[in-house]
Structure formats: C-alpha cells, structure tokens
Amino acid sequence: MVSEVRPLVEITREALQVLYREIGIVNTVRFLNQFSTGFGDCTEERRELFANMTLDDLVAEIRRRKSQPSSAQ
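The structure corresponding to this sequence follows.
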C-alpha cells in the first residue's frame, strides 16, 4: 500500500476535526492538554513560593485547606 506524504499541519487539522466531531470540543481540549509541555521553571517557582515554609507549615496549610468547603478555596 502506497500512501502520499501529507504535510503535518494538514494531518493535524484533519485529526482535530475528527476529535471535535467524535468526542466534542471540551473533551478534545482535555485530551490535548495532557500533552502540553508547559513553560517556565517549576522547580525554581516552587523554591520561591515555599522558601519561608517548613514541612510542618506545609502540612498545616494542606490540612487547613482540606477542612474548608471547596467554594472557599
């Protein structure tokens, strides 16, 4: 079987149309998001965010948030 080589942009466009039609836009976006590489340096951001917190502080914050109703977070 011989098939023509099509540009990747064309294949991507067709694949997205199939996904939209078969599973809907919302589920297509959810599916595609799992392949996102993201951006930034999450390790450095985490260091900055939690620089002044101890492990006990973090655990206490997690427990506090778990005890709150979800709409209050």
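The mean pLDDT is 88.
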